[in-house]
Amino acid sequence: MEYLDLSPDERAALAGAGRALLKRKSDMLEGLHSALERAVPGYLLVPERAEMESMEANLALLFTMLEHGAWKAGTPADALEAARLAARLGLTQVDLARIYHYGQDVLWNDFLAPALAVECSDADMLSRSSRVAFRVLSEFLTRVERDVSEQMRRELVTVGSPAERIDAVKSVLTGSDPGADLLGYPLLGRHLAFICWATPGDGADHATVLDAATAVARVLPARARLVVQASARTAYGWANVRPSEKVNTAHVESLLRERAMGVHVAIGTGTTGVNGFRAGHEEARIVFEHVSRGLRPAPSVTDYDRIALLSLLLADRDQAVTFARRQLGDLAGEGIELRQLRDTVRIYLGAHLSPLRTAQALHLHRNTVNNRIKRAEAMLGYPLADSRFELQAALTVLHSLEKV
Fold first, then answer.
1. Domain range annotation of the chain
2. Do domains 189-311 and 316-401 have the same CATH topology?
3. I need a labelling partner for 171 at 20 to 30 A (CA). Which of 249, 342, 380, 386 fits?
4. How are beta strands 300-303 and 264-267 bridged, if at all?
5. Cα 319 to the chain's mean position, in Å?
6. Which of 187, 177, 217, 176 is nearest to 90 (CA)?
């Protein structure tokens, strides 16, 4: 370390602030983590354990420097290791700069400046001590960011450019054997695959799509994550999760809405090993194609379980439409009234033939539902209960195609 030339009162103020902040380190870690998570989506790519170890090492060294009046110190090894992992998982140099610059603002405004105010007896002492402390903070984080950026640059030479990364992923998806891991992501265990994308009308550019994909990857309860940019408005992702973990799609969609991210997310089911890595992506791709045909506004989150039956029904679209029209007869006709009638019957069948639950779902009077059911049965020529499952499949097919 190199040491500062300080007056006794400046040295005492910095030492007191450094000691106080070292005692609050765990609280600061949580506060800084939460602030960065909200402000810099790319930050979410860093493995949580490595990220916390990096922050803790940086804070411990910084506050020790203040306590002892030090001016310069080397970059902690934990920060360099976190950079190596982050580069493999897709963190960009731009996001790295945003993390350090925003982190500096939070550290100064929320922690260091208030700690100095407690230690200083008058405005002049606070002004002098603040100038020194801010300079130490700024130059320390600038040096660390420079070293971490260089570590990431060297690591990217190893793992490749974004184009090389997606090529590596596509190679595995098409059958090549990558071994135990892919771009630092472990292929053992259970994988949840997802695709994040935006249409030109959604107003999201490639940076927003990648930010959204990293946010989705982090919100999934995972032990490891991989995100790659697949095209200008599409990103692929995987999360290595425990066997019992479930995805809360409503929570993911709420996160995207809160952050005003106009993207769509398709999620596959969780399966294991490298075959599960591929199968989950294929399921996500099927969801992607289904959602892309519809008119659902962004943000949206859809998992494979939600459309699995429909996917099977529409595997041969022409045959599915022929089946639906034959099954429904005149009920398959055009017009708003017939569409409303079909929707009522579809929801009625899904509600186990309950007029009350159907009325509640459609916000209609129960008598209105009963009248529509009678009309549908008259058009079909038989009670709905007689061919309940065939009718439900036929109505599901037409309802899906009507949204295209």
1. 2-159, 189-311, 316-401
2. no
3. 249
4. parallel
5. 37
6. 217
Alpha helix segments (H runs only) across 174-240: 206-219
User: Is residue 328 within 8 Å of residue 380, measured between CB atoms?
Assistant: yes
Cα separation of 234 and 265, whole Å? 10
Q: What are the pLDDT digits (tens) for 128-173?
A: 889 988 988 898 899 999 998 888 877 766 666 777 888 889 999 9
Q: What is the 3-state secondary structure (H, E, C) of 352-392?
A: CCCHHHHHHHHCCCHHHHHHHHHHHHHHHCCCHHHHHHHHH
- CA dist 17 and 29 (Å) reads 17
In terms of pLDDT, which residue wins out, 326 or 207? 326
Say yes or no: domain 316-401 is CATH 2.60.120.260: no
Cβ atoms 88, 155 nearer than 8 A: yes
Q: Tokens 């001016």 appear where?
A: 71
Answer for the pair 140, 65: CB distance below 8 angstroms, yes or no: yes
In 147-270 the beta strands, taken as DSSP E runs, fall at 181-182, 185-186, 190-197, 222-231, 234-241, 264-267
Give mean pLDDT, residues 315-322: 79
Only one residue has tokens 């075959």, namely 275
pLDDT digits (tens, 9 = 90+) for 28-74: 888 888 787 777 766 665 656 667 778 888 888 888 888 787 767 78
DSSP 102-171: HHHHHIIIIIIHHHHHHH-SSHHHHHHHHHHHHHHHHHHHHHHHHHHHHHHHHHHHHH--HHHHHHHHHH
Type and span of the H or E element at 399? helix 388-402
**Six-digit token string for 363:** 């916000």
Structure tokens at 236: 């692929």
- Alpha helices for 161-226 (secondary structure H): 162-173, 206-219
CATH node for 189-311: 3.30.70
What's domain 2-159's architecture? Orthogonal Bundle (1.10)
pLDDT tens string 196-254: 998 877 777 777 888 888 888 878 777 788 888 888 889 999 988 887 777 888 888 88
pTM of the model: 0.56
CA distance 288 to 281: 10
- How many other CB atoms are there within 10 angstroms of residue 291's CB atom? 22
Interior angle at CA 313, CA 309 and CA 317, nearest 5: 145
